[in-house]
Amino acid sequence: MSTLPPCPKCSSEYTYEDGPLLICPECAHEWSPTEAAEADEGDKVIKDSVGNVLQDGDTVTVIKDLKVKGSSSVVKVGTKVKGIRLCEGDHDIDCKIDGIGAMKLKSEFVRKVL
User: Fold this and answer.
1) Taking the model in full, what pTM does it have?
2) Which of 27, 54, 62, 100 has an alpha carbon within 20 to 30 A of 110's alpha carbon?
3) How many CA atoms does the CB half-sphere of 97 hold within 13 Å?
4) What is the pLDDT of residues 56-85, one digit of tens each?
5) Torsions phi, psi of 34, nearest 5?
């Protein structure tokens, strides 16, 4: 059995060493073992659509019309969302939107208000 870590990009278990680097044969991602250890130690950083780091309590703007699942309503482009909370999972922003209520958003569909 291999003691090498899985690929951080695609989670493939078939990684191999090539000199000082680890390489994934499935997605061709290359990384150093020290980078992988440092990434495991730090918390996950959640960024908005343009790369700004998000934190709890930030105000964000929706950049795309978003259909609300199970409803006929839509969150329109430019809607401001105040006091977000970051959470784990695919939808990593927990918030309340005026007129719609509590919902979760993906960080890739919002932009931080600076």
Assistant:
1) 0.62
2) 27
3) 20
4) 999 999 999 999 988 899 999 999 999 999
5) -70, -35
